[in-house]
Write a structure and sequence with these properties.
Order of helices and strands: EHEEEHEEEHEEEHEHEEEEHEHEEHEE
Helix content: 10-25%
Number of helices: 8
Largest sheet: 8 strands, mixed
Shape: elongated
Strand order of the largest sheet: 5-6-3-2-4-7-9-10
Number of strands: 20
Structural class: alpha+beta
Length: about 425
């Protein structure tokens, strides 16, 4: 899979912002303003095809020239694309001819070869950050361009102050290609089995689940946000997760869709706390005390003895208890998933949680429309908290340890 980019998105945003502030009266060689200053943009109307580079009617295409000295110029749509200034386009062998309206900020660009978009002076796609849902339309354009050219245009954030000043920004996590990096990161944690994880300065090391393995939660599409504790979890004081790592022998999760948390060592506004561990299905649904009602094992020795005779107990999440849970899973076969109980957290704090990705899977206990429902989660988080996470495909039995794979085609677009 090619992941070529013309330049980094951060570089593109920096260049565009420089051009916005370059309010010259004339470009060298008596060239028009758009040759060396301002930013040329064209909106993509809602409902337009993803192939935004296709030509409209007429021999020319109308663009707006944005500059800081023309705050009244405002693109009409929430999504659009950026054309290079003429000098940059010539330098990159993508020349074009155009004419700026006398005394105005419209630029008529002569038609280009829309059968070969890689040769067109398109610089970026943008969306209005005031409407987070517009990101999905920008993704549609970004993906369509990549499918034809093999190049990833950056998706930029477009914002405007009350005074009319425009700026462009870039967020790596909002790019469709970013999902490949997330999948690689999760697969690396799945295969890593360190003896421990670094603690805070001056403190003892943490158990190795702090920086390895994958803490996943599956849930159905319901009347609450997927990342919120369910009503039954609130009642029982804990939220049920399944932990995956190559030495934990967990071939299945319960739900066909859910989310993955970043490592517990990751800085976050709200840090999750592991309450107890059940190496197998703890049958916690409906319990009033999810880490109490099955009995509590207060030592690794007690946990091993209890599970070896076919009984359950909640294991303490210290280093010894965690390692005992590994031994139990390796010694006693026939148990697909496990339950790791996380203390409930406040409702509606999606921006503060260590969320890393959504997932769908076809090998879960419950069957359903995992991809469709994970897209519902993805859209819900974007609409609710202006936060975008990629969707990954989970195969917990992947022989090569690559349990997560990423495809741009799995992502929500408009």
């Amino acid at each position: 899979m090619r992941t070529q980019v013309r330049q980094t998105g951060a570089q593109t945003a920096q260049v565009l912002n420089f051009r916005l502030g370059r309010t010259v009266d004339e470009c060298p060689g008596a060239n028009p303003l758009f040759a060396c200053s301002g930013v040329l943009v064209q909106s993509v109307a809602a409902g337009n095809p993803a192939t935004f580079w296709k030509l409209g009617a007429g021999a020319q295409q109308t663009f707006l020239l944005l500059r800081n000295d023309a705050p009244q110029v405002n693109p009409p749509g929430k999504v659009g694309f950026v054309f290079q200034d003429r000098f940059s386009a010539i330098a990159q062998d993508r020349p074009y001819t155009a004419k700026q309206a006398d005394g105005g900020w419209e630029v008529a660009i002569d038609n280009w070869n829309d059968q070969a978009p890689a040769g067109v002076a398109i610089e970026a796609v943008y969306y209005d950050i005031a409407d987070p849902k517009a990101l999905l339309r920008a993704h549609n354009a970004q993906r369509a361009f990549f499918d034809v050219t093999g190049e990833w245009l950056p998706v930029l954030r477009f914002s405007r102050t009350e005074a009319g000043q425009v700026s462009f920004g870039f967020n790596q996590m909002e790019q469709l290609y970013y999902g490949y990096s997330v999948a690689a990161r999760l697969n690396a944690r799945y295969t890593a089995t360190p003896p421990s994880c670094p603690g805070n300065p001056g403190e003892a090391d943490n158990p190795s689940y702090y920086c390895s393995g994958l803490l996943t939660r599956g849930t159905a599409v319901g009347s609450f946000h997927a990342w919120n504790p369910s009503p039954s979890s609130d009642a029982g004081g804990s939220v049920s997760f399944t932990w995956l790592r190559k030495d934990y022998n967990t071939p299945q999760v319960v739900w066909p869709q859910g989310f993955v948390m970043a490592p517990m060592s990751t800085p976050a506004a709200y840090r999750l706390k592991l309450n107890c561990i059940y190496p197998f299905d703890g049958g916690t649904t409906g319990l009033s005390g999810m880490c109490v009602d099955r009995g509590v094992c207060n030592s690794a020795q007690e946990a091993l003895a209890t599970y070896r005779v076919g009984k359950l107990c909640a294991i303490q999440p210290d280093k010894e208890g965690f390692e005992a849970s590994i031994t139990i899973r390796q010694e006693i076969p026939g148990h697909a998933w496990n339950e790791w109980m996380i203390d409930t957290w406040p409702q509606n704090i999606g921006k503060q949680l260590q969320l890393e990705a959504f997932f769908h899977t076809s090998t879960s206990l419950y069957k359903g429309e995992g991809l469709r429902d994970s897209q519902i989660f993805q859209r819900d988080l974007l609409n609710t908290d202006s936060r975008y996470l990629p969707i990954l495909d989970l195969n917990a039995t992947a022989a090569d340890g690559q349990v997560f794979t990423y495809s741009p085609q799995d992502q929500s677009v408009d």
